[in-house]
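Record format v2
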Amino acid sequence: MSKVKTGIVMLNLGGPANLDEVEPFLLELFADREIIQLPFQHWLGPFIARRRAPKVRGLYDKIGGGSPILRYTRAQGQGMVERLDRLSPDTAPHGFYVAFRYIQPKSEDALRAMAADGVERAVAFTQYPQFSCSTTGSSLNELWRAAERTGLRDAFEWSIIDRWPVHAGFIGAMTDTVREGLAQFDPAVRDQVLLLFSAHSLPLDVIDRGDAYPQEFGASVQAVVERLGRPNPYLLAFQSEVGPVRWLGPSTERVIKRLGARGQQHLLVVPIAFTSDHIETLSELDREYGEVAHRVGISHYKRTPALNDRPGFMDALANIVRDHLAAGRPYSPLYRTRCPGCVNPQCRQILNPVGAAVAAGTS
Amino acid sequence: MSKVKTGIVMLNLGGPANLDEVEPFLLELFADREIIQLPFQHWLGPFIARRRAPKVRGLYDKIGGGSPILRYTRAQGQGMVERLDRLSPDTAPHGFYVAFRYIQPKSEDALRAMAADGVERAVAFTQYPQFSCSTTGSSLNELWRAAERTGLRDAFEWSIIDRWPVHAGFIGAMTDTVREGLAQFDPAVRDQVLLLFSAHSLPLDVIDRGDAYPQEFGASVQAVVERLGRPNPYLLAFQSEVGPVRWLGPSTERVIKRLGARGQQHLLVVPIAFTSDHIETLSELDREYGEVAHRVGISHYKRTPALNDRPGFMDALANIVRDHLAAGRPYSPLYRTRCPGCVNPQCRQILNPVGAAVAAGTS
């Protein structure tokens, strides 16, 4: 294999590729104190994971037997590096490496593949547009731990793309999906369709620590509705709450119920914090909430298509990396600022940052 | 007095102009179920108000014996209408009318003055940049109730400026205050100053109903930091929690304590949801949290100046109204969309909207 000059690690939560991976995936998820802190977690985490596994297996069974997130991430990565080789010849050839948080391929797999390909310059590229310690933060912490475990601590020179909530390419691609979603409605009612921007929720204790996620979610929504330039009303809501803690609201399911009770007929759900289809879109939004919407009398309930393997999104990913490489900064001005309530000393680290002098100046 | 063609009602919460107005102000505030819902409110509201009154009187005493919000609102209004007469001669002459929510001049005062001036075309202009049912919503509901009480239900043709979180003029004026705030720090450390954007908090039950405030606050912050174009890290926090309910976090006071404990030396607080100085800036941010900051070792704690009577902000106010009048719409696309969890049938009304056919199309 030809030597890769710049390795781009695509960080995401991942999803079980088949039904046998459901329980291991949930066990890893509920063990992660960077996403949810439970009392007696080493006992309660596995308890919740095992109790939920049969139900979740059934959900994956209904969406085709597994999550498509690996397939889409690989397509995105391939499209991204092809474009990057043209956009940024100085840093070519580029390679992409998938690092999921709770399922294979994990950080170790990505790091070992990078070493095998002779990568020296590495970019940790979160696939979550909005930063949260629960998602991007957890993935980065795991990446650095994996570098220690694999003995690859000093193997690469790193920089981080830690957030891109209002990058023009992302907003443009996301706005295109909203336009496609609206095109599914009768032109006579199109202006009355309510846009419901839905993102995964966070436990309130994460919010109270000072997590950046709600601010960046709000900024993404504003950027999309301005780019869209239509009179449609819109609302925000949060989905996927689980476990015995209080979560940030309003809940997507409850909002759908209340909109139905009020007589709202036309609803377009926009999953603005996910870039690939996975169980939260294919099962929770499409099936579960679709049934809720039907029950409460919402006659036209649609979801915008996920970005998945859309060429416009591959353009965006490539442009985000190109802009990052050209800027020469190891991370955004926000990355090194830990949440005010942070209790995790590992947070906001980086190994071997590029341009160490620059890093010292902005930390 | 010469006839006023276009009357602009400036809606805000207001503040006691002298110490004798403190208790009446608090009684009105804690009676408002649109800002806070307490159990046994007709009993607990006055109880909390009377118990807090002596302490709050003391706070007003220390900032000069009263709130400057009326003085600043009048200066803003005067600057706004002078500019509007030049910017929008078709709708001139313009007059401004202050309608505070919890203290004189109230909605009745504004409406009676408008009738006396012969106003026919009226604009309800919230002075809260970001929409919340607790602030703008409550003021508008009270305005319509006051129109009923005064017999002026049919006296004016109305439109509403219900939000302006990312209006370019507002963002530009706010960014200028951040630049001025940063200029107070030694150039050697200026890039390390942490910007703490602080806004009044909301009870979590308001958030769970689906209030627009957190999204619009997030969008305002993003717009300011992008316009600023500097490497300073920033955080968001919420101030002014009161009473026995749970509020949206993180709390500004706790964030300051934690930043101090972590060794942060340079902090600039940006009150992005207030446009005039009042007790939350002059007392809470400057005195109370200033002392907290000093105690926890933050050596340089500053606050950006409020917009107050800055000419750039008067330009922004005039441009917001000019753009609104030119667009000919009775309200923003969001105004008529009640919160999903709304339980107040009065919300999101308008009396005698201009261009009623347009209104029907967008509601």
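Chain B touches chain A through 44 residues (CB under 8 Å).
The first helix of chain B runs from residue 22 to 31.
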